[in-house]
Amino acid sequence: MSGYRGRGRRYRDDYREPVQETPEQRLRSTILKLGEVDPLQELHRVAKFIYDHPAGIPFVAECIRIGVTEQPHKIPYYAALLKILHEPPPPEIAPGFPEGVSLGRSLLEDFWKGFQGYLDQLAWREIRLCIQFFSHLTTANIVSAQSMISLLLSFTTVLDEFGVSQGRGKRAALCAVEGLLMAGQALKQHSATSVLDIINAVQTYVDTTTFLKSLAQPMVRFHALTEPIEGSIEILDCGLAAMKTLNAQDFANLSDIFPQPYLDGPEPVLPPFDLPSVLVPPEVVEMDTLGESSSEVKREEWPEYHLTLFDNDVVPDPMTPAGYALKSTLLDIIDIYDVNRKECARILLEFAKWTPAGTFRPKPNPPPGIEIPDPVPGKDWQLENTVVDNILGSMFALPDSRQRSMFYIALITELCKLSPPTVGPAVGKSIRKLYSFLGDGLDVEIGHRFADWFSVHMSNFNFQWVWKEWIPDLQLSSQNPRRGFMRKAVEFEIRLAYYDRIGRTLPEDFQNPQAQILPDKAPGPDYEYDDPVHPYHDPAQSILGLLRGRSEVADVVSALESLRNSLAESNHGAANLDSILRSIAIQSLLHTGSRSFSHFLNAVERYLPLLRNLAAGGISSSGGIPNLEARMDILTASAQFWKRNRQMVGIVFDKLMQYQIVDPTDVVSWAFGSGHGNGEGPLKVDYCQWDLLKAALDKANGRVMIAKKRVIALRKEEDENRARANADGAGNGASMEVDTDAKPDDHVESPALTTAVKAFNSLTREQKSVLSCTLDGFAACLVPLPSEPNKNDFAREVIQENVWHNRINWGTGEWGAWETWGWYRHFCGSYSAYLRTYSTTLGTVSLTRIEGSTDPAAVLVKKIWNAAIGVEET
Amino acid sequence: MAHVVQPLDQPSNYKDSQARVDRHRQEEALSRSSTLYIGNLSFYTTEEQIYELFNKCANVSEGGGIKRVIMGLDRNTKTPCGFCFVEYYTRAEALASLRYISGTKLDERIVRCDLDAGYKEGRQFGRGKSGGQVRDEHREDYDPGRGGWGAQAQKSEAERRREVEERYADTTGIVAGGGGDWRQGEVPNQSLKRGRSPEDDGERERAARSRLDVEDRM
């Protein structure tokens, strides 16, 4: 933007009106900025500032609460601040402060009200961070150990609730774990049995969730889905291990793990504060009356696995107390600052100063006058790698990442921009490590997200990657996940840039068509009838001409009809004339709109009636009956036209669904039918088909969501109107008679509501049908019927242990079947909330055929399904 | 978080100087908008590239997705002039783009996103004197992605450029809607022999859609 001296303010994002700070704002920012320069030195200054600026207890307590819940790295220092405020202030800090009054105590009382608020809303992260704060205060002897133990026990009580959801259980367990980690010493001195009770409660809970791990592990062994596999860790497992380790050491040396600035200074003279007792409120189940899917579809929660990308001498081992504490805080920072990735990156790169000295390797070339401390044995980790490790851990969590992947991708980009020489290598190492997991069991969805991240990241950094180190892998089978990754990465890069640009970044070996990495020409349309020798060249040209000339729909339809008649007479030996006509019409229409996405939309909108007519079988001999075959033909013709541009296939299918030319169920049927290799070869699902399946599933689910919101809004509106009418009626002293007369009207729905409910019901049916069609499709691929002509015999093979160990010799068939299993597992995990809603129907409709079968493939399909719907097999 | 740092998903201070509604109405429209203005694009960046990047903030399972992309064109030459509008179905997606895409690269340029009060006819054209964007009138540097020297005659470059320059030559100024909400009984099996004119139908569709859109945002 250099040189631009515009008159508008448009290009100045950072422009903000200068504002005069009020004393309250100054106080707030002083409290929130605690420690930005030197936390220890600032503590007394901030305390004095608070004494000097009386702003009321609630205000100061709120500032501290914001500090605690939005800056988890500062919690020990807020605890230290509170300790200072808790004790009688020395006269130089607060001259004339009344004796016997504890400001800290009043603040704590008010802080507690906020905590109770978080509890009422079940704001789990805030709850957990407040618990950390109380734990530090327990160690500082400001909060009584007995009341802290009671608090933690009310969270382990949650774990015993009947039918506790995984999300609630996991979060409650983490509250107990982290509370114990930070206050363990004081708590154990008070009651060693209580400490053991907490540990045992968490252990028991973890044991009951083992079967869920089969859907969440990032590395997959289909022959042993729930067994732990090297290369990943689970967060709650880590917390539990850390807690046990610390307990075995009687929680000695906690200050190696996190700072304990509150231990400086004298023991408190005032008696400790007793935290009131709490009850963790039950989860609210939304009660509306929309039938089966009444509760808001929440993503199901699973054990959270993170891949291990670095060795433990580079990043801390999260199974150790220090490693767990660092991981937990970093993950919280990453989560909290998703609203501003730039600030998030800055805070992460400054994280070392909030950890005990020697935790992270200091930056080389410190400013003059500052000495580099000696490394602490067993620590001296690398901050950037640790940060990247945690970001990627969150990004690759299964079945869904904590936040959308784009946040993590953008955050890593910011980190690289802030400190290229240190973050860049960490990113490069992560990419190599992830790549090495491919073909070794790395989950297919993670592989997909990896390619996505890779391409966006490279797009931000000039597409510079050292491709040549992967040249030897070009010898692998073409469906090997590593080759699949390279192909996908190049495809995604081209979409973000353009063909020639990406071609230039690849070594010659990759450009060789035999490598099957770079396509032989740029992605583009492929009008089948372009070739003058094509038997349908001339008729297609005539239709194309009409569409280009924007002829009326009726004219195009009659042209297609007369074309059918003439083709039927002439002997082209056409097996399916209807399909050919549809293909000509669709491909010609797409041709007129092939210049850009907008051109495509314009073409479609101009000829919507034609498309509807075609979808309804309008030009066919069957004439006008909604027609599955016609809709399949439309999808096939579209995929044919854009066969050299998979992105456009996705776009066209999406809009065909949006304009209601085809239904999501059609797309699913197509993806399992014609969608793979023209319906030939063994049934399987690869990432291209998965993308289409996902688009269809999401579209169906999204529509239900919109319809439901509309019904709820209309109901609410009607309730309000009714209430207002009743109030008016009561207000003008209406007689009893009128009231009784008015009653029946109360239950008459408005036409808008009736329509909305009807739409909701239709869409719910469609949603169910999409899910069941997908489940059927997977079952047909994985447990094929003996009569299935395209049955995939590899599906049964690749899930056997001995076959897996021989994967070095796998070919296209084996990898194709393995990938299909992977997408099935992901489908079950990612859509489990929906599958659970309809589990009875779906199970009956789609899985009856394999019920009771001892076929290992059938058993595995069932096992994964059961984990998805939350049923533990006995 | 919001108390400690400034969220990135706030609209900027830009006000559409040519909007025919008052500032208050503009602000209200902004507060409900699911449309983004995207600036600092290369003249050669295609809608599909834009779609690819912005689709990463789409959330179809919550009823979202990319509704349409409207490429900004030079008023006179009808060639892309470095900006566009991306319209999502939901506002949350537009906000996600502000958080995660604005300030990152597309086609090797750092793109800038801003909430926009919503596309109005004619806004796809540049407002600079020469037909392009105002900012390119004032630019004094050489920017190969934006036609070289500011507002100057452009030298012919690669094939990419020719394709781009021809692409929108056929623009009629009519912008597609992108498809509205699902409606009951949308798949008709009526014969088209009687035939309404497709334009009429398109108009009706559009009118119906904008009504739905209004409902959407209530």
From TrEMBL, chain A:
Q: Which GO terms describe its biological process?
A: mRNA export from nucleus; nuclear-transcribed mRNA catabolic process, nonsense-mediated decay
Higher taxonomy: Eukaryota, Fungi, Dikarya, Basidiomycota, Agaricomycotina
Here the segments flagged for biased composition (Basic and acidic residues) are: 11-23
Q: GO CC terms for this protein?
A: nuclear cap binding complex; nucleus
In which residue ranges is the amino acid composition biased (Basic residues)? 1-10
GO terms for MF: mRNA binding; RNA cap binding
Transmembrane domains' residue ranges: none
Ranges for region Disordered: 1-23, 720-747
Where in this chain does the record put each MIF4G-like type domain? 316-508, 527-835
Report the superkingdom from the record: Eukaryota
Q: Which InterPro entries match?
A: ARM-type_fold, CBP80, MIF4G-like_typ-1, MIF4G-like_typ-2
Give the range the annotation lists for the signal sequence.
Answer: none
| Organism for this UniProt entry | Thelephora terrestris
- Put simply, this protein is called MIF4G like-domain-containing protein
Automatic annotation (TrEMBL), chain B:
Domain RRM per the UniProt entry, residue ranges: 34-118
Entry keywords, A to Z: mRNA processing, mRNA splicing, Nucleus, RNA-binding
Q: Which SUPFAM superfamilies match?
A: RNA-binding domain, RBD
User: Keyword RNA-binding on this protein?
Assistant: yes
Q: Does the keyword DNA repair apply?
A: no
**Which Pfam families does the UniProt record give?**
RRM_1
What is an annotated GO biological process for this record, any one?
mRNA cis splicing, via spliceosome
Which intervals of the chain are annotated as region Disordered? Answer: 1-22, 124-218
Please provide, alphabetically and separated by semicolons, the GO molecular function terms listed in this UniProt record.
Answer: RNA cap binding
Q: Where in the cell is it found?
A: Nucleus
Which InterPro entries does its entry note? NCBP2, NCBP2_RRM, Nucleotide-bd_a/b_plait_sf, RBD_domain_sf, RRM_dom
The UniProt family comment states: Belongs to the RRM NCBP2 family.
What is the protein name stated in its UniProt record?
A: Nuclear cap-binding protein subunit 2
User: Which organism is the protein's source?
Assistant: Thelephora terrestris
